[in-house]
Structure formats: structure tokens, C-alpha cells
Batch of 3 targets.
Target 1
Amino acid sequence: MTHNGWANYETWLFWSHMSNDGYWYEEMHRITKEHLEVEDAVSELGYALRDFMNDEIHVHTKCDLPIVFDMIEACFSEVRWREIAENLLDDYAPESEDEGALIIEFVTDESKSES
């Protein structure tokens, strides 16, 4: 089931939090830049983001209740990391020459009379 244009709620939730926090946003882009020239960049970046976040939740989650950590891991397991990677890589995709180009058709007196 999709959520706000994302594959699922968990992917949207992850993106909405990470893209609105300066530190996490910069970290995601730092990791993305490291994968720009990698073969199969989407998959490799997805794995790298997943592994990075898995390490981070272990560092930042201080809780004596195992169920809380299990619930966090369950949510993270539903994130579509490939979709996150594609979205990040789109920021670095070269624009085509025609993309965003303004096309102006000049109308001359001759072209008006041909109509």
C-alpha cells in the first residue's frame, strides 16, 4: 500500500524525518556521493543506507525494554531502501539539455497566412 507517493508508510516516515533533519540529510547525501560511480549504485546505496541506519539505531536507542528496540527494527525492515536510494541519486542525475528548456515558436506573418 502506498503512502504519500512512497512505497509504504515506513519508507515515507523514514524519508520525512531524515530529509527534515539537517544532520541526517547531510549524512544521507554524504553516503550517496560515495556511491555515485559504483556499479548498480541504486542497490549498493540502498544497502549502505540500511547498514548505516542500522548502526545508528543501535548507537542512539537507549532503552531497557527489548520490545521497543524490536519494534524499531521491525519498522526499519519495512523501509524500501532502494526507493530511498533512487530518490537521493535523482538529485545527482545530470539534466538533459532539453529538460526544462523553454521552447518558443515564433509566429511570422507567413506562417499565419498558411493556416
Note: DSSP finds six helices and no strands in the chain.
Target 2
Amino acid sequence: MTQTAHVTIISVFALMLLRPARAGDLARIYVYVQLETPARSWFPVSCDGAVVAEIKRGRFFAIDVAPGRHMLTEEKGVPTFVDARSGQESFVRLNWHFEVGKPAIPVWQVVQPSTARNDMICLTYIDAGKAVSRLVPKRDPRGPPRLTRRHETNDE
């Protein structure tokens, strides 16, 4: 074999080791801000120290991350940690801590999936331009809701 062939084989092997995670290897974290909140303006949200998107009240977005522990924060708020598991969804909601005579402090909180899905029914996915990172899909990854007819039940 020539030196070029060796370099090619080594390069291909190295690229295989560095391959990006497959969709099944990733975890998804939904981040949302309810409608009734002081967050009226767009503000940046960071995951593991890097800004991934901007959000405001009544909006949500998803982050596709490698499994493991991730920190979500906003520059003036109290961060939270999410233990993301491969192929699973986690949910983080922005809450607020209020004290008399002091400005509200944003506090991120991990929320149970059933509570979060109920909270998110009337929320809107962020505009594509507000997704700063490639980890954040430009469109709602959940797809359109399934519509039912009056005679259909959820059991069918």
C-alpha cells in the first residue's frame, strides 16, 4: 500500500470515530415560558454556557443534546440542571421568585412531562431566527397536532 492509501484509511477511520450522534443517541430538552409571566421581551437562554436560543413569554423551543447532565440558564437567573437520557424528553420551565421591593428573579425548574405538556398546549414555537445554535430545531419538532372528529375517541 502506498502512503496515500494509508492516510486515506486512517482518515476514514478517524471520521468514523468522530461521527455526530445519531438521532436515537440524542436527548431532547424542551424549554418554555408560560403566557402569564414578567418575561415580555426576548432574552437569551444558555445550555452548558453557550447561548442556544432567545425566548419570551408564551414561547418554547427544543434542544437536542447528548445524553448527560446539562445546565440551563439565563444571564440574570437561577440555573437548573437536567439529566438528559438518550431518546427521552425533558422539560424546563421559567418560574419567578418574588420579594417585596425587589425585582423578580428568573428561576429555571425541571417539570414533569405530563405537567409540561399541559402547560405548553397554547404556547408557540420560537421564530426560526431566534434559534442561535444548531442544537435547536428551526421548527417545532413535535409536528402538527393530530385532529380528531367528534365521533372519534382517544382510545381508537
Note: The radius of gyration is 20 Å.
Target 3
Amino acid sequence: MSSRYWELLWKRARRFMVRAERDLIEGDFDGACFNSEQALQLAVKATITGFTVLKRESIARKASYPS
């Protein structure tokens, strides 16, 4: 996993949220619920991925330092 994947997940989450807001304004409450749920799931996945990437990078940096 890389930081690019993390960024991709956040972009997708934002797009779903824009769709949810549009659906809400248009009165499509079913669509708004679906798109907001997708946005939330992607945001959570992005957060977990981000922490995982940071942890792996931290471990890699520690391993590269001479003891």
C-alpha cells in the first residue's frame, strides 16, 4: 500500500459525498443514504490505510538506522 492509494480512497469518498449532497437537495433520500454510506466506508478505509502506511514507513526507517 502506498500514500497514493490513501489519496485515491479520500478522493473517492469526497466524490460519493458530493453525490450524496446532490441527492439530498434533489429529494432522492435513498440515493443520499447510499452515497453517504459509501463515502463513510471509504473514509474509514482511507484512515486505516493511512495509519498502516505511516506505521510501515516508521518501521522501515527504524530498520534502516544502524544499531
Note: Residues 1 and 53 are 7 Å apart (CA to CA).
